[in-house]
Amino acid sequence: MNRFFSLLSSDKSLVMGIVNTTPDSFSDGGKFNSVEGALTQALAMCQQGADIIDVGGESTRPGAEVVSIDDEIKRVIPVIESIRQKSDVFVSIDTSKPEVMKAAVNAGANLVNDVNGLRAPGALDVCAELDVPVCIMHMQGEPRMMQLNPVYSDVVKDIQLFFELRIQSCVDAGIKRSNIILDPGFGFGKTLEHNLQLLKNLDEFKLFDLPLLVGLSRKSMLGTILGGASVDQRMYAGVAAAVLARTKGASIFRVHDVKATVDALKVCDAMNGV
Q1: Catalytic (active-site) positions
Q2: Which residues of 124-159 are buried (b: 16+ CB within 10 A; e: fewer)?
Protein backbone atom coordinates (compact mmCIF):
# COMPACT_ATOMS: atom_id res chain seq x y z
CA MET A 1 0.00 0.00 0.00
CA ASN A 2 1.49 3.36 -0.99
CA ARG A 3 1.74 6.31 1.35
CA PHE A 4 -1.39 8.04 0.06
CA PHE A 5 -3.60 4.98 0.50
CA SER A 6 -2.14 4.45 3.97
CA LEU A 7 -3.14 8.01 4.84
CA LEU A 8 -6.67 7.58 3.51
CA SER A 9 -7.16 4.32 5.39
CA SER A 10 -5.99 5.77 8.71
CA ASP A 11 -8.38 6.98 11.41
CA LYS A 12 -6.72 10.41 11.47
CA SER A 13 -8.73 13.39 10.29
CA LEU A 14 -7.24 14.83 7.08
CA VAL A 15 -7.29 18.49 6.10
CA MET A 16 -7.49 19.43 2.43
CA GLY A 17 -6.40 23.01 1.76
CA ILE A 18 -8.17 24.83 -1.08
CA VAL A 19 -6.13 26.54 -3.80
CA ASN A 20 -8.37 28.04 -6.48
CA THR A 21 -6.57 29.28 -9.60
CA THR A 22 -9.73 31.10 -10.66
CA PRO A 23 -10.76 34.74 -10.99
CA ASP A 24 -14.31 34.11 -9.71
CA SER A 25 -14.39 31.55 -6.87
CA PHE A 26 -16.77 32.65 -4.11
CA SER A 27 -14.15 33.04 -1.37
CA ASP A 28 -10.70 33.51 -2.86
CA GLY A 29 -11.37 34.30 -6.51
CA GLY A 30 -8.48 36.18 -8.11
CA LYS A 31 -6.12 35.78 -5.14
CA PHE A 32 -4.16 32.79 -6.41
CA ASN A 33 -4.60 32.81 -10.18
CA SER A 34 -0.86 33.16 -10.83
CA VAL A 35 1.43 30.17 -10.50
CA GLU A 36 3.59 31.98 -7.96
CA GLY A 37 0.61 33.04 -5.85
CA ALA A 38 -0.96 29.58 -5.91
CA LEU A 39 2.36 27.91 -5.03
CA THR A 40 2.97 30.29 -2.14
CA GLN A 41 -0.51 29.60 -0.77
CA ALA A 42 -0.09 25.84 -1.16
CA LEU A 43 3.24 25.80 0.65
CA ALA A 44 1.84 28.01 3.42
CA MET A 45 -1.03 25.56 3.88
CA CYS A 46 1.47 22.68 4.07
CA GLN A 47 3.29 24.54 6.85
CA GLN A 48 -0.05 24.93 8.65
CA GLY A 49 -0.64 21.19 8.57
CA ALA A 50 -2.60 20.47 5.38
CA ASP A 51 -2.46 16.80 4.36
CA ILE A 52 -3.78 17.44 0.84
CA ILE A 53 -3.79 20.48 -1.45
CA ASP A 54 -6.88 20.71 -3.66
CA VAL A 55 -6.16 22.62 -6.89
CA GLY A 56 -9.10 23.89 -8.93
CA GLY A 57 -9.33 25.87 -12.14
CA GLU A 58 -13.08 26.39 -12.53
CA SER A 59 -15.41 28.01 -10.02
CA THR A 60 -18.48 25.97 -9.02
CA ARG A 61 -20.24 28.77 -7.16
CA PRO A 62 -23.85 29.46 -8.24
CA GLY A 63 -23.84 31.42 -11.51
CA ALA A 64 -20.18 30.77 -12.29
CA GLU A 65 -19.03 30.85 -15.91
CA VAL A 66 -18.09 27.65 -17.75
CA VAL A 67 -14.35 27.27 -18.39
CA SER A 68 -12.99 25.52 -21.50
CA ILE A 69 -10.85 22.39 -21.21
CA ASP A 70 -7.78 24.19 -22.54
CA ASP A 71 -8.17 27.15 -20.19
CA GLU A 72 -8.66 24.91 -17.17
CA ILE A 73 -5.57 22.88 -18.04
CA LYS A 74 -3.54 26.07 -18.47
CA ARG A 75 -4.64 27.21 -15.01
CA VAL A 76 -4.01 24.05 -13.01
CA ILE A 77 -1.17 22.08 -14.57
CA PRO A 78 1.64 24.63 -13.95
CA VAL A 79 0.45 24.93 -10.33
CA ILE A 80 0.45 21.17 -9.77
CA GLU A 81 3.88 20.85 -11.37
CA SER A 82 5.22 23.67 -9.19
CA ILE A 83 3.83 22.14 -6.00
CA ARG A 84 5.26 18.76 -6.96
CA GLN A 85 8.72 20.31 -7.48
CA LYS A 86 8.69 21.91 -4.03
CA SER A 87 6.77 19.42 -1.88
CA ASP A 88 5.69 15.80 -1.60
CA VAL A 89 2.30 16.84 -0.18
CA PHE A 90 -0.62 14.97 -1.67
CA VAL A 91 -2.36 16.93 -4.43
CA SER A 92 -5.99 16.73 -5.47
CA ILE A 93 -7.41 18.00 -8.76
CA ASP A 94 -10.83 19.60 -8.43
CA THR A 95 -12.43 19.10 -11.84
CA SER A 96 -15.29 17.42 -13.67
CA LYS A 97 -13.53 17.16 -17.03
CA PRO A 98 -11.86 13.83 -17.94
CA GLU A 99 -9.18 15.58 -19.98
CA VAL A 100 -8.19 17.74 -17.01
CA MET A 101 -8.23 14.73 -14.68
CA LYS A 102 -5.78 12.88 -16.89
CA ALA A 103 -3.46 15.86 -17.41
CA ALA A 104 -3.44 16.62 -13.69
CA VAL A 105 -2.61 13.08 -12.57
CA ASN A 106 0.11 12.91 -15.22
CA ALA A 107 1.48 16.16 -13.75
CA GLY A 108 1.60 14.68 -10.25
CA ALA A 109 -1.89 14.85 -8.72
CA ASN A 110 -2.83 11.95 -6.44
CA LEU A 111 -6.60 12.30 -6.22
CA VAL A 112 -9.54 13.30 -8.44
CA ASN A 113 -12.16 15.43 -6.69
CA ASP A 114 -15.27 15.76 -8.87
CA VAL A 115 -18.30 17.85 -7.84
CA ASN A 116 -20.20 16.15 -10.68
CA GLY A 117 -19.64 12.64 -9.33
CA LEU A 118 -17.83 11.35 -12.47
CA ARG A 119 -20.99 11.80 -14.53
CA ALA A 120 -19.33 13.54 -17.49
CA PRO A 121 -18.90 11.28 -20.55
CA GLY A 122 -15.59 9.44 -20.25
CA ALA A 123 -14.90 10.38 -16.61
CA LEU A 124 -15.45 6.88 -15.23
CA ASP A 125 -13.19 5.27 -17.84
CA VAL A 126 -10.41 7.82 -17.34
CA CYS A 127 -10.44 7.37 -13.56
CA ALA A 128 -10.41 3.60 -13.90
CA GLU A 129 -7.37 3.94 -16.17
CA LEU A 130 -5.61 6.39 -13.82
CA ASP A 131 -6.20 4.11 -10.80
CA VAL A 132 -6.15 6.91 -8.22
CA PRO A 133 -8.63 7.68 -5.43
CA VAL A 134 -11.73 9.56 -6.59
CA CYS A 135 -14.12 11.72 -4.60
CA ILE A 136 -17.74 11.38 -5.69
CA MET A 137 -19.74 14.44 -4.69
CA HIS A 138 -23.51 14.83 -4.76
CA MET A 139 -24.89 17.87 -6.54
CA GLN A 140 -28.51 18.43 -7.51
CA GLY A 141 -28.60 20.18 -10.88
CA GLU A 142 -25.51 22.02 -12.13
CA PRO A 143 -23.54 24.94 -10.68
CA ARG A 144 -25.17 27.63 -12.78
CA MET A 145 -28.72 26.77 -11.60
CA MET A 146 -28.36 24.47 -8.59
CA GLN A 147 -29.66 26.88 -5.94
CA LEU A 148 -32.83 28.04 -7.72
CA ASN A 149 -35.24 25.54 -6.16
CA PRO A 150 -33.62 22.40 -4.72
CA VAL A 151 -36.21 19.79 -3.71
CA TYR A 152 -35.81 16.38 -2.04
CA SER A 153 -38.26 13.82 -0.72
CA ASP A 154 -35.69 13.05 2.02
CA VAL A 155 -32.30 14.68 1.54
CA VAL A 156 -30.32 11.99 3.40
CA LYS A 157 -32.06 9.01 1.79
CA ASP A 158 -31.96 10.62 -1.66
CA ILE A 159 -28.21 11.15 -1.40
CA GLN A 160 -27.70 7.63 -0.05
CA LEU A 161 -29.43 6.31 -3.17
CA PHE A 162 -27.27 8.57 -5.36
CA PHE A 163 -24.12 7.20 -3.72
CA GLU A 164 -25.31 3.62 -4.07
CA LEU A 165 -25.84 4.09 -7.80
CA ARG A 166 -22.60 6.01 -8.38
CA ILE A 167 -20.52 3.50 -6.42
CA GLN A 168 -21.94 0.72 -8.57
CA SER A 169 -21.24 2.70 -11.76
CA CYS A 170 -17.65 3.24 -10.62
CA VAL A 171 -17.11 -0.43 -9.83
CA ASP A 172 -18.72 -1.50 -13.11
CA ALA A 173 -16.32 0.82 -14.97
CA GLY A 174 -13.29 -0.77 -13.28
CA ILE A 175 -12.68 1.68 -10.44
CA LYS A 176 -11.68 -0.12 -7.25
CA ARG A 177 -14.24 0.35 -4.48
CA SER A 178 -11.34 1.05 -2.12
CA ASN A 179 -10.49 4.07 -4.31
CA ILE A 180 -13.83 5.81 -3.66
CA ILE A 181 -14.41 8.76 -1.31
CA LEU A 182 -17.89 10.22 -0.75
CA ASP A 183 -18.90 13.88 -0.39
CA PRO A 184 -22.56 14.78 0.32
CA GLY A 185 -22.03 18.18 -1.31
CA PHE A 186 -22.96 20.78 1.26
CA GLY A 187 -24.33 23.86 -0.52
CA PHE A 188 -24.60 22.19 -3.93
CA GLY A 189 -28.31 22.22 -4.72
CA LYS A 190 -29.38 22.36 -1.07
CA THR A 191 -31.25 24.83 1.10
CA LEU A 192 -30.08 25.74 4.61
CA GLU A 193 -32.53 23.19 6.01
CA HIS A 194 -31.16 20.48 3.70
CA ASN A 195 -27.59 21.31 4.74
CA LEU A 196 -28.43 21.18 8.44
CA GLN A 197 -30.24 17.85 8.01
CA LEU A 198 -27.15 16.47 6.26
CA LEU A 199 -24.82 17.66 9.00
CA LYS A 200 -27.08 16.31 11.74
CA ASN A 201 -27.37 12.91 10.05
CA LEU A 202 -23.91 12.63 8.47
CA ASP A 203 -23.25 9.38 10.32
CA GLU A 204 -25.96 7.69 8.21
CA PHE A 205 -23.45 7.63 5.33
CA LYS A 206 -21.18 5.33 7.35
CA LEU A 207 -23.15 2.40 5.95
CA PHE A 208 -20.98 2.56 2.80
CA ASP A 209 -17.80 2.04 4.83
CA LEU A 210 -15.93 4.56 2.68
CA PRO A 211 -14.05 7.76 3.63
CA LEU A 212 -16.35 10.76 3.94
CA LEU A 213 -15.20 14.20 2.74
CA VAL A 214 -17.02 17.39 3.68
CA GLY A 215 -16.69 20.93 2.37
CA LEU A 216 -18.31 23.35 4.80
CA SER A 217 -15.64 26.04 4.87
CA ARG A 218 -16.99 29.60 4.43
CA LYS A 219 -20.18 28.27 2.80
CA SER A 220 -23.22 30.53 2.47
CA MET A 221 -25.14 28.34 4.92
CA LEU A 222 -22.76 29.60 7.61
CA GLY A 223 -23.31 33.19 6.56
CA THR A 224 -27.06 32.66 6.84
CA ILE A 225 -26.78 31.08 10.28
CA LEU A 226 -24.64 34.03 11.39
CA GLY A 227 -27.19 36.56 10.20
CA GLY A 228 -25.56 37.56 6.93
CA ALA A 229 -21.87 37.36 7.83
CA SER A 230 -19.55 37.96 4.87
CA VAL A 231 -17.27 35.24 3.51
CA ASP A 232 -14.25 36.47 5.49
CA GLN A 233 -16.23 36.43 8.73
CA ARG A 234 -17.16 32.73 8.67
CA MET A 235 -13.96 31.04 9.88
CA TYR A 236 -15.10 30.23 13.43
CA ALA A 237 -18.41 28.86 12.20
CA GLY A 238 -16.55 26.75 9.63
CA VAL A 239 -14.27 25.30 12.28
CA ALA A 240 -17.28 24.48 14.46
CA ALA A 241 -18.97 22.77 11.50
CA ALA A 242 -15.83 20.72 10.82
CA VAL A 243 -15.69 19.56 14.44
CA LEU A 244 -19.37 18.58 14.35
CA ALA A 245 -18.81 16.71 11.07
CA ARG A 246 -15.85 14.88 12.62
CA THR A 247 -18.03 13.68 15.50
CA LYS A 248 -20.45 12.35 12.87
CA GLY A 249 -17.83 10.33 11.00
CA ALA A 250 -16.28 12.66 8.40
CA SER A 251 -12.56 12.10 7.89
CA ILE A 252 -11.49 14.57 5.16
CA PHE A 253 -12.15 18.29 5.47
CA ARG A 254 -11.86 20.65 2.50
CA VAL A 255 -11.11 24.08 3.96
CA HIS A 256 -9.75 27.57 3.38
CA ASP A 257 -8.67 28.12 7.00
CA VAL A 258 -6.15 25.32 7.43
CA LYS A 259 -4.40 26.15 10.72
CA ALA A 260 -7.60 26.75 12.69
CA THR A 261 -9.19 23.56 11.35
CA VAL A 262 -6.07 21.43 11.92
CA ASP A 263 -5.86 22.57 15.55
CA ALA A 264 -9.55 21.91 16.22
CA LEU A 265 -9.47 18.46 14.64
CA LYS A 266 -6.38 17.52 16.66
CA VAL A 267 -8.54 17.94 19.76
CA CYS A 268 -11.20 15.67 18.25
CA ASP A 269 -8.63 13.03 17.34
CA ALA A 270 -7.03 13.22 20.79
CA MET A 271 -10.41 12.64 22.40
CA ASN A 272 -10.93 9.62 20.15
CA GLY A 273 -7.46 8.27 20.92
CA VAL A 274 -6.13 8.62 17.37
Answers
A1: 219, 254
A2: bebbbebebbbbbbbbbeebeebbeebebeebbeeb
Strand 134-137 to 52-56 pairing = unpaired
Instruction: Report helix, strand or coil for 32.
Output: coil
Task: Give pLDDT tens digits for 105-135.
Answer: 999 999 999 999 999 999 999 999 999 999 9
CA 7 and chain centroid, separation = 16
Gap between the Cα atoms of 10 and 8, Å rounded: 6
Domains, the chain, with CATH or none: 13-271 (3.20.20.20)
Q: What is the pLDDT of residues 144-178, one digit of tens each?
A: 554 556 789 999 999 999 999 999 999 999 999 99
Region of residue 30 (phi > 0: left; psi between -120 and 50: alpha; otherwise: beta): left
pTM of the entire predicted model: 0.92
pLDDT of residue 223: 97
d(CA 171, CA 164): 11
Strand blocks (E) in 95-209 = 111-114, 134-137, 180-183
Residue 113 CA neighbour count, 13 Å, CB half: 31
Task: For residues 52 and 56, give the distance between their C-alpha atoms in angstroms, rounded to a whole number.
Answer: 13
Residues contacting 43, CB < 8 A, separation 6+: 83, 86, 87
Whether 98 contacts 122, CB under 8 Å = yes
